[in-house]
Amino acid sequence: MSLMSNLSTSMTSSSSSAFLAPTSFNSRTQRVSVPVKSFKICKCVSTPLEQQQTDYKTKVPRNSNIAKLQAGYLFPEVARRRAAHLLKYPNAQVISLGIGDTTEPIPDVITSAMAKRSQALSTLEGYSGYGAEQGEKALRAALASTFYSNLGIEEDDIFVSDGAKCDIGRLQVVFGSNVTMAVQDPSYPAYVDSSVIMGQTGQFQKDVEKYANIEYMRCTPENGFFPDLSTVARTDIIFFCSPNNPTGAAATREQLTQLVQFAKDNGSIIVYDSAYAIYMSDDSPRSIFEIPGAKEVAIETASFSKYAGFTGVRLGWTVVPKQLLFSDGFPVAKDFNRIVCTCFNGASNIAQAGGLACLLPEGLEAMQEVIGFYKENTKIIVGAFNSLGFKVYGGQNAPYVWVHFPGQNSWDVFSEILEKTHIVTTPGSGFGPGGEGFIRVSAFGHRENVLEACRRFQQLYN
Amino acid sequence: MSLMSNLSTSMTSSSSSAFLAPTSFNSRTQRVSVPVKSFKICKCVSTPLEQQQTDYKTKVPRNSNIAKLQAGYLFPEVARRRAAHLLKYPNAQVISLGIGDTTEPIPDVITSAMAKRSQALSTLEGYSGYGAEQGEKALRAALASTFYSNLGIEEDDIFVSDGAKCDIGRLQVVFGSNVTMAVQDPSYPAYVDSSVIMGQTGQFQKDVEKYANIEYMRCTPENGFFPDLSTVARTDIIFFCSPNNPTGAAATREQLTQLVQFAKDNGSIIVYDSAYAIYMSDDSPRSIFEIPGAKEVAIETASFSKYAGFTGVRLGWTVVPKQLLFSDGFPVAKDFNRIVCTCFNGASNIAQAGGLACLLPEGLEAMQEVIGFYKENTKIIVGAFNSLGFKVYGGQNAPYVWVHFPGQNSWDVFSEILEKTHIVTTPGSGFGPGGEGFIRVSAFGHRENVLEACRRFQQLYN
């Protein structure tokens, strides 16, 4: 990774700035040359004799849990391979259907609200500093009434955040190291990786491609991508993503009712990731809280990322119902609130203004239009792979197409596609051993790129 | 806290919406009424018979580390007392010199950049999704050249974030539970609280008002607010904030050289919080990396919050030099990068556009003007307390005034000031037992409020 690429090269000390590549130095100062006389921000008085002692090590032990992690986090690894490919083929017209990043402009009704909020920060009346760590009251209320109306979820059950991935990390901090966890296999890798980081797991076991002490709930075409709960061991926490990333499978009402009952029987907490709920086409539940009793066993994370193209703007939310209690009767929401207040300071006020605009009638309409566009993309991709004779899953309820390459290695398929078509996908095995033999194709892309990608798939596989 | 205020009241089930206060329900739907027929976002099919079973508990154990935390996090607690005061005196003209929140509008050159970036997100060319988790290259480069020019800190040593508090939390996740830590006493409570949460400490010991297994480095007027390092036990991590929050004391070059040597001798890692460096008036170092050898033992966190009034916008950065190594030789930056990639997704792209504008010559000039204004406030507050015969510390290098009330209880002083003058301050003991007998008065405020506050202090103490 580029971060570390300089690690082994010898460092130039501050006294040797004459040896710094002048172009690099100049390009920096061009951008931000600071009249030093008026702003004494930076005093540059490092001792001339300072030399890097490359052999100095602190006596601080490396966190042994982080040391358990395998390779890089999946998506930076995909990005790294994409970058390497571009180095090899500088003129390649690379199409990214990999990391699931939104591509279409955000509707003006939403960005205008953010621009307005930005400008208002320059006025006495419009300026705001620290907001509530849990999010602005108006946004929490709008989330409650838009997505949880009549489900008994109230404004103060909702915590606004800078994204679902960040909230998953904070939830893991709440749970700590003395819990066990289960996860769909395959699923979004942040669940497993954050669990490893918090020390909830054992070492990675290369033979089975699993971490010890994690219950992997296998989701395959054979079981309709819903785990056979009769074979799943009891764990404290159950991560469950529906519609699932990467398989695109959405659990039905019956399945979720089973899952809630399973959690209740075991005294488990479900962390339900509904990041793709807005992409659903059938009538499966959009929220776990549609299932009776779920408020006593479930947390729900959600995000504006895939709803409104906010992957870069950063805004999400997590529902922690006040009815959800630890074994000693202490409310989970109270500890989550404490973590949010101690390790977080709320989402950007500008992003929150955008979120509020999303939930206005015209915002919802505009959002839905973009989502409709991506859903069309999904149909095109599904059609292309179907016509080539592949077994294709997902697509109906999620912007991900899960393509089966039976008996093949996911990374090999990923590499072959990248090498021969300049298309970036995501290897299924990056989502867990249950993803082996699949690749995930994201439907986020400009239409012409999606069409061109399908043409290239056709050339490759026809 | 309001979050929990409903906990013991019985919940209305979804079937009993007729019993919901109609005004509350209406006020929600007014704001975000959704034409359900066109947007099937929310299916409201919770079973009518669902009733809250208030006695159901999961079998998930509460995280025993979080259970160690005392009361609420300091600033929400101050906010809670402010709110209670307002309930008691609804017409009081409350002046907040408490939580250290910026109050002055953000210069237009900065907000315009954010507004422009917001609007650009509505265009094909200007849209951007996921950015690099570590921050945009241009911003990292600008931070390096503005604040660390000639200090040997490079663009890839800098991680852009949503704020220093959040980065402190992420650093603690990097360190994990098997490290020991030292902290200035008094200091910003997030260091201690995040350490408790991660399990680095023992229980809170009421007799000394300290957590077991934390090394509290006492900073008093007697030692010039710099700890006597000869009496400080070796720890893995040393949190050090300079200029200090709350005392306002900035460590001199000699003191920081001592500190770096102390860390080097012990193999410790310093987490240096420079959030207030821009407020310094004397020529003490702005960055720990001005001290020779610091790159091998120190991390630096910093923030746009107090530089540019970004407390609500959320933008900060952390420097983890590639020279900093764990005891096994593994680079700390590599693990921090992994946590940033796994539990975070980068700061908002709009906030980053604001940060970049801050570092343009006109942005720096505008920023410096606002900072100059707050520094004037500080002088006014220092003058007022001096004229009343108080011993006053801080103020010269930080926007905080540290007022001594020898022999008195900080919370008593806080309460008396609030009760008699309607001014919110922060009790010194909230920053550690070494803060007992002090209150912190923040200089963030409109000029008329600061002047009025000083008049009220005069009335109270004359």
Explained architecture:
2 copies of one chain form a homodimer. In chain A, the strands form 4 sheets. Chain A has a 7-stranded mixed beta sheet, sandwiched between helices. The model of chain A is unreliable at 1-52 (pLDDT under 50). In chain A, strand 7, helix 8 (253-266) and strand 8 (269-273) form a beta-alpha-beta unit. Chain A folds into 2 domains: 71-105 and 363-461, Aspartate Aminotransferase, domain 1 (Alpha-Beta Complex); 108-361, Type I PLP-dependent aspartate aminotransferase-like (Major domain) (Aspartate Aminotransferase, domain 2, 3-Layer(aba) Sandwich). The two termini of chain A are 36 Å apart. Chain A has 462 residues and is of the alpha/beta class. Helix content of chain A is 36%, strand content 12%. The first copy, chain A, has 14 helices and 15 strands. At the A-B interface, helix 1, helix 2, helix 4, helix 5 and helix 6 of A face helix 1, helix 2, helix 4, helix 5 and helix 6 of B.
Which features would summarize this protein structure in a list?
homodimer, 462 residues, alpha/beta, Aspartate Aminotransferase, domain 1, Aspartate Aminotransferase, domain 2, 2 domains, 15 strands, 36% helix, disordered N terminus
CATH architecture of the largest domain in chain A: 3-Layer(aba) Sandwich
Largest sheet, spatial ordering of strands of chain A: 2-10-9-8-7-3-6
How far apart the termini of chain A lie comes to 36 Å
Radius of gyration of chain A: 24 Å
| Biggest protein-protein contact in the assembly | A-B, 180 and 180 residues
Question: How many helical elements of chain A?
Answer: 14
Low-confidence stretches of chain A: 1-52
Keywords (chains A, B): Aminotransferase, Pyridoxal phosphate, Transferase
Protein name (chains A, B): LL-diaminopimelate aminotransferase, chloroplastic isoform X2
Cofactor (chains A, B): pyridoxal 5'-phosphate
Domain Aminotransferase class I/classII large (chains A, B): 93-457
